[in-house]
Amino acid sequence: xxxxxxxxxxxxxxxxxxxxxxxxxxxxxxxxxxxxxxxxxxxxxxxxxxxxxxxxxxxxxxxxxxxxxxxxxxxxxxxxxxxxxxxxxxxxxxxxxxxxxxxxxxxxxxxxxxxxxxxxxxxxxxxxxxxxxxxxxxxxxxxxxxxxxxxxxxxxxxxxxxxxxxxxxxxxxxxxxxxxxxxxxxxxxxxxxxxxxxxxxxxxxxxxxxxxxxxxxxxxxxxxxxxxxxxxxxxxxxxxxxxxxxxx
Length: 248
Hints:
mainly alpha, 65% helix
């Protein structure tokens, strides 16, 4: 059961970041970025959907992927605090997506050898998508950081605001430890150095210094969220809760 909880948390990460990324629909700075951000959001939601469907089957409680995605209470979501942070501006969105993708690309790569064939299958596709997300977001971080004084300041502000939430990427809660011991999911702690190397290289190109701030903001894996989560869920869950069981 603990391993299933780790898969559920992973699904929550992707659903919530997918929702945040989709918020750029109609707000992006150009049509090209509008389409790019929409596609990134669809990738993330697609990964979440595969994981939710697998979790629903494993837990055997008669819940569907829609139930897991739309009908849980705020404290029942186990996503990282990083992914629920609001889109202050385009720089915040790109820095957040880069930090997450820089972790998920090697994570999915390691998950391709999972003893769970469903997880291995999801990882095979998700790795390709995460590599693309990492490259796309990294290009924007460099463009903004090494751009104008205004874009540099915005990128720096985003980095300082989001950096304290990044430590949770590497936390191994009991469900993660159980999933890792069983060979279902990788050990998150072992990805800290590769993540740091990737991030440092991109920040150097972007003329941005690695923050000296502690990565101390945690709690998402225990269902303790920031004030932003409730507002996000109000939008995410609106249709399902207003029209229960509605189908297209």
